[in-house]
Every structure is written in structure tokens, then in C-alpha cells.
Amino acid sequence: MIQAIVFDVDDTLYDQQQPFRNAVYQIVPDFQAEDMHDLYIRFRVHSDEIFPKVLAGEWELVTMRNFRIQQSLKDLGYPTIDDDTALAFQAIYENELDHITMHDEVKKTLDYLKKLGVPMGIITNGPTDHQFKKIKQLGLFKWVRPEHILISQATGFQKPEADIFQLAEERFDLNGETTLYVGDSFENDVVGSKSRNWQALWFNHRDRCLPEGAEAIYDIELHDFDQLYPTICNICTPLTV
């Protein structure tokens, strides 16, 4: 049975595509709505591929941020945007992120876990200040103790590296076999948590396909925010009554 749950942040605790969508339309007003999902997925792919180079000091953060939106648009056949436009996109995107809100079903789930006394934690990839700002905006300290939050840049490790999950075990006092990790990325969240024998819930609400040749190693797959609360209710062991 599950005795602790650790969550991803981006596109798991809130809908990350909404602020992204708003920023895209401001820099590419004629962007086609039917391409938004694919653009967002490409944006996330490039972020995940390049951020390790930022951690290693090989790329500047601003270079990575410019590249991911420039290349994502290029991948879909849209005209290339220059660095100034890419910087403008990032500024708008960050402003939109200042107004993110937690999905109602996520809040309901966290309230339920808190009432049961189930320990919770956060593991998220990204720049420390940027991710911490989102954590505060979402009000996560209501449910998660600050010392039970790991941000990749601050640790020197990042998902899917096993090291960041091992660090969580040590700092959060977890038993991996009775801990569930909930995240939207198969490569980062499922593969990463499984490397330490955690239980894995792939929150696949973007209906992504498994990477070519990958095995379905997750324990649970969900496709909608409305599925989260009843699923968690069914699998958690109350620690307090």
C-alpha cells in the first residue's frame, strides 16, 4: 500500500499549457489553435533535453529559454523568431505563470491526503528561483513541508537521474517501495522514480505516446484531472484516523 506521495509540479499540479498558450498568441498572433498541443509538447521536450546543459554550465539559462521556443516553432514549420522576440515570449510566459492556480481536483486530492496524514513531497526540475516562485504561487506550503521540496538546480541532480529520488528518500524519510510518484512526463517521472523502485503514476492528461521501444513500466496511468482524486482515495493507507 502507498504510505507517501511525491508530486511533480509543472503540468501535474496545474495546467501549464494555459500560460504557455497565452504567451504564444501574444508573439505569434496568427498561430493555429490546432497546432498548440504539438508546440507545447515540443517545448517541453526541448526544455528537458537542454536543461542538463544549463546545470553543467555549458549553456546560459537565457540561451536555453530562447532556443526552446525558437526551435519548437521551427519544428512545426513556423517562421523563425529572433532572440528579442524569444525574450519577449519568456517575459510574457513568466508573467502568466505569476497567475497560475491549482486545479480543483488536485486541491481536493491534497486536502484528502493531508486529512489522512499521508506524507507528501515535491520533486521538480528547473531553475531554483523560477520553480520556487511557482510553488509559492500555488500555495503548496499548505500541504507540503518546505524541507520536503527538491528543486533540481538546488540539488545538482535532476529527473530522471536516480540520485534525486534517492536524495528524496533520505531527506523525506521515505521507503521507495511504498512511495508513489505522480508526474506527467514518462521519461522524467516514470523512468526516474522506477529507477529507485518507487510506485509510479503517469499523469498522462496530454495523451502522449510511449517513447519508441519503451515498456509501460508505470503502475497507474491517468488521462484526466477528474481521475486523480478517486484513484488516490483507492490506494492510500491512512496513517492517522
UniProtKB/TrEMBL annotation:
It comes from the Bacteria. One of its GO terms (biological process) is small molecule metabolic process. The keyword Metal-binding applies. Its cofactor is Mg(2+). Keywords: Hydrolase, Magnesium, Metal-binding. Pfam families: Hydrolase. Transmembrane segments: none annotated. InterPro entries: HAD-like_hydrolase, HAD-like_sf, HAD-SF_hydro_IA, HAD_sf. SUPFAM superfamilies: HAD-like (SSF56784). This is HAD hydrolase, family IA.
